[in-house]
Design brief:
It contains three helices and ten strands; from the N terminus they run βαααβββββββββ. With 220 residues, the protein is mainly beta. The protein has an eight-stranded antiparallel beta barrel with strand order 2-3-4-5-7-8-9-10. The N terminus is likely disordered.
């Protein structure tokens, strides 16, 4: 859906209070039901994973593997941004499985169009501890699904849409202490609008991409 910014400003009357015509209101309304459902699904998956999490849990490697907080910087073909993640162990041991709930924000410019997005996601990570002298290297792979809102601005016209983003890849995490780590991830994915007429959106509102991410984690 799209509307001109000057059209919105012209809808405000010069009375004691502002009135926006109902026709424009319905035209600007975003279908958020799917977004709410996806958000509920992410929360449900994360809460289920939390049932398996043990605070201050240490596995056979001697490193904490309980609840974790993380911060990530990510860049791909047309976007860059950051994420906050909250992780839970699903299976512990030398080979492990973890689940992450993520909050994501990104933006960029392509073909004269400025865009930004905000999303929530769920990531599943499967990895293996490799002990070294005084630290551990953890190769792993991951799959990730994100759902959110995306907005575009081009020539005073604002468009917005629900967004789906699926990606996957591999990474290496380096554990130098029992609680802290540094990691790098690489992979690729595809993002696209959902529940919206694509003819009203820029041509690059859906695209495949390669990604690179770096971040840190704190394990409790």
């Amino acid at each position: 859906m799209s509307y001109n910014l000057s059209e919105i400003s012209g809808c405000i009357k010069t009375e004691s209070h502002s009135v926006i015509p109902s026709a424009l209101y319905h035209r600007c309304k975003v279908p958020v039901r799917l977004f709410r459902v996806s958000g509920f699904a992410v929360v449900l998956i994360s809460c289920t994973s939390f049932m398996y999490a043990q605070k201050n849990e240490t596995n056979t490697t001697g490193f904490n593997n309980g609840f974790s907080f993380g911060s990530i910087w990510r860049v791909d073909n047309s976007r860059n941004g950051g994420s906050a993640e909250f992780g839970f162990p699903v299976h512990s041991g030398k080979t492990f499985v973890r689940d992450y709930a993520t909050l994501n924000g990104a933006g960029g410019k392509a073909e004269g169009t400025y865009f930004g997005e905000a999303s929530i996601g769920n990531k599943v990570q499967i990895g293996n501890f490799i002990r070294c002298a005084g630290f551990a290297v953890i190769p792993y792979f991951f799959i990730n699904a994100e759902f959110g809102l995306e907005g575009f601005i081009k020539k005073n016209t604002f468009n917005k849409a629900l967004l789906a983003d699926f990606n996957g890849g591999g990474g290496f995490e380096f554990r130098f202490t029992s609680q802290n780590s540094f990691f790098i991830e690489y992979g690729g994915g595809y993002f696209f609008p959902i529940g919206t007429d694509r003819t009203e959106l820029p041509a690059d509102s859906s695209a495949g991409y390669a990604l690179l991410a770096i971040g840190t984690r704190l394990y409790l």
